[in-house]
Design brief:
Strand order of the largest sheet: 1-2
Number of strands: 2
Distance between the termini: 44 Å
Number of helices: 4
Shape: elongated
Strand content: 5-15%
Oligomer: single chain
Structural class: mainly alpha
Helix content: 40-55%
Radius of gyration: 21 Å
Largest sheet: 2 strands, antiparallel
Length: 113
């Protein structure tokens, strides 16, 4: 823990994220602004909507979606027929429909390209 984080924790700031991202005061400020300002409420609602699909998944499914081996950082799969980039769906790790040609591509066996 760096000295600044250590000092904040000892000064009664409450829990402080070890990487310094959020502290209790920042979270309280976010809550206050989201309650009082329309733009802030919309920001929080949009962020919340983005995580809801992940929160709705059972832990076992999330664990199944996490890679077990080192792999590509980006989704670079292409359709074997038309060579267009395949759309990414984090909750479908089995097959994907190519938008341009309609073919169902198997994501289990990666593209040979």
């Amino acid at each position: 823990m760096n000295q600044e984080v250590s000092d904040r924790a000892s000064e009664g700031w409450g829990w402080v994220h070890p990487a310094g991202f959020l502290d209790v005061a920042t979270i309280e400020e976010i809550k206050r602004k989201a309650g009082a300002l329309d733009w802030a409420r919309r920001v929080v609602e949009n962020l919340d909507a983005g995580v809801r699909p992940w929160l709705a998944q059972p832990l076992e499914r999330i664990e199944a979606l996490m890679p077990k081996r080192k792999m590509q950082v980006y989704w670079l799969m292409v359709c074997p027929d038309c060579m267009e980039r395949l759309p990414f769906d984090p909750f479908n790790d089995r097959d994907v429909v190519c938008q341009p040609c309609g073919k169902i591509a198997d994501t289990i066996h990666s593209s040979k390209i």
